[in-house]
Amino acid sequence: MNRWKTMAMVGALAMAAWVPSVGAQTTTPVPDPQAHQDRRELRRDQRDLRQDRQDMRRDGRDIRQDKQDLRTDRQDRYRDRQTVRQDEKRSSRIGRQVTGPPSGRISATSIATAAVSTRTEGTSAPTIGTGVKIIAR
Q1: What is the average pLDDT score of the chain?
Q2: How many Å apart are CA 83 and CA 88, to the nearest integer?
Q3: Mind listing the pLDDT tens digit for each residue in 125-137?
Q4: Partners of 134 in the beta sheet?
Q5: pTM, two decimal places
Q6: CA-based, 20 to 30 A from 34: which of 3, 49, 117, 122?
Q7: Integer Cα distance of 50 and 48 in angstroms
Q8: Distance CA 24, CA 22 (A)
């Protein structure tokens, strides 16, 4: 019986401590307008911060893309310069060689012109030039 009394007493003490705390939790808190304003400003600041981070990421992507575009442009300019140099070399080589007319066909006159050098004094026979290449396009 002694145990039963002890258990009843512990239960009564627990109820006495629990019931007032439940009542304190169920009361509606009075809204604090300053706290409400602070929470609103905090949410706005967090939203702005999130937007700023997105903008920074977008700017980083744009910068990387711009760098890639610049790199590509430099490579294109380099290739263009190489092509121009090769074209100049070809044209300078072709300029030193005797070529046919612009149509790309070699006529009999162009062959004769290329093959015959100027007549030397006292010689009536034409001489054949050396080192002259005839290129057909």
Answers
A1: 74
A2: 9
A3: 444 555 555 555 4
A4: 98
A5: 0.40
A6: 49
A7: 5
A8: 5
Residue type, 59: D
Backbone angles phi, psi at 48, to 5 degrees: -65, -40
In sequence order, the β-bridge partners of residue 98 are: 134
Sign, CA dihedral 75-80-81-82, equals positive
Amino acid present at 125: A
Rounded CA separation 65/67 (Å): 5
Q: In which element (H, E) is residue 122 found?
A: none
Reading the block at residue 102, the tokens are 């612009």
Residues forming a β-bridge with 135: 99
Residue partners of 99: CB distance under 8 A and separation at least 6: 134, 135, 137
Burial of 13 (0-12, 13-18, 19+ CB in 10 A): exposed
* Residue 101: both structure tokens together: 């007319």
Q: How many residues does the chain have?
A: 137
Residue type, 40: R
